[in-house]
Amino acid sequence: MSVSIDVAGLRPERVAVVPSPLAELGMALHALSEPGHHPGLRGWVTGVSARLDPHLADRMCEADFLWRTTFSDLFMPFAGLPGRSTLPGATLAEDLDLLDKLTDEQFVDAALEFTCALPYCSHGPDVLTDARLRRRALELAAARGPRQLRFSERLLDDPPRIRAWLRQFLQDCDEAFFAEVWSRLRHPLTADARHKTELLRRKGLGEALTATSPALSLDEAAARITVDKLGTGHSATGDGGLLLVPTSLGWPHLSVLHRHAWQPVLHYPVGSPEPAAPTPVEQLALRMTALAHPVRMRLCRHLARSAYTTSELAQAHGMTAPEISRHLGVLKKAGLLTTRRRGRYVLHQLDVTVVARLGGDFLEGILR
């Protein structure tokens, strides 16, 4: 499982690393709506929520499906503009002006991404003109609750009205809390972008991606970027560019914008506690599967306490040595065991450090 970006023919000058105030505001709204995703921001979330105007907090709930699950591509409107090479604005006002340049179709498709399951990696029907898709969108919105249904109805009936509402809401968020946040974050984000740009210039795209996140890799022969995520998707730079957008509020999310016909964007966290080598999702799946078997769970009970030989385990569990060996092989392939030789005996023991990290690795993997 992964998301890939075809970069065949991508010229070095078409790769840019640029912060976006609108993308950071989207991440701030996400953290405020889902603080459990961002334990490191708990103090900030508590402080902002405590002083938030009740009317603004109510408006925040009205459209929170745009940023609660993750956050909508509407927060990266520069990626949807013709030419697929537009850069983020230097200020929130400039980014909002780029949002205004999206067509109504683009705006509505991106806004309803999480409610009516519109095609993301390919071109599909237009929800503004397709009556069947409109009905389906409203049915799914109703399942999310009356507030989301009302918002979706207004969005489909009068896109310009909702566009104006959203712009005013984001400007009010800027005045209430985000301007102070951005004044503090834009300097380290700019410094990180400058560093990644220098890596691009001196060492190439592969080195820059590795420095951005260990979950990113470049296959130069295939001209393909792979993002190790618990999901699938595909995009291509084509005749456009590739954008890397840093976020200080984003960990553990490593987001990939790969919407059909939009410029690919990698939205990556900086200044985060991300480990040097996060567990690949394939390895994480192996470990979860290995531990799910009842026999291996019982073996782990022994192996967590001390090191044992295969024969000792076979005797303790009333099984044959070959049966025990097969189960140990599964645990070892998943990276859950350590082995050491003592004379002619091989001793196996559970790597409790790896097991202790599983909860965090699982959470990081599904939120990445």
Describe the protein's architecture and organization.
The protein is of the alpha/beta class. The protein has 16 helices and ten strands. It has helices at 21-33, 42-51, 54-62, 92-100, 104-111, 113-116, 131-144, 146-157, 159-203, 205-212, 281-292, 294-303, 310-317, 321-333, 352-356, 358-367, and strands at 3-6, 15-17, 216-219, 224-227, 233-236, 242-247, 255-257, 265-269, 337-342, 345-350. A four-stranded mixed beta sheet has the order 3-4-1-5, with helices on one face. Strands 2-6-8-7 form a four-stranded mixed beta sheet. Strands 9-10 form a two-stranded antiparallel ribbon. The two termini are 12 Å apart. The relative contact order is 0.14.
Structural class: alpha/beta
Elements, N to C (H/E): EEHHHHHHHHHHEEEEEEHHHHEEHH
Number of strands: 10
Radius of gyration: 24 Å
Write the layout of secondary structure elements.
Blueprint: E1 3-6, E2 15-17, H1 21-33, H2 42-51, H3 54-62, H4 92-100, H5 104-111, H6 113-116, H7 131-144, H8 146-157, H9 159-203, H10 205-212, E3 216-219, E4 224-227, E5 233-236, E6 242-247, E7 255-257, E8 265-269, H11 281-292, H12 294-303, H13 310-317, H14 321-333, E9 337-342, E10 345-350, H15 352-356, H16 358-367
Compact overview of the structure:
With 368 residues, this protein is an alpha/beta fold. The protein has helices spanning 21-33, 42-51, 54-62, 92-100, 104-111, 113-116, 131-144, 146-157, 159-203, 205-212, 281-292, 294-303, 310-317, 321-333, 352-356, 358-367, and strands at residues 3-6, 15-17, 216-219, 224-227, 233-236, 242-247, 255-257, 265-269, 337-342, 345-350.
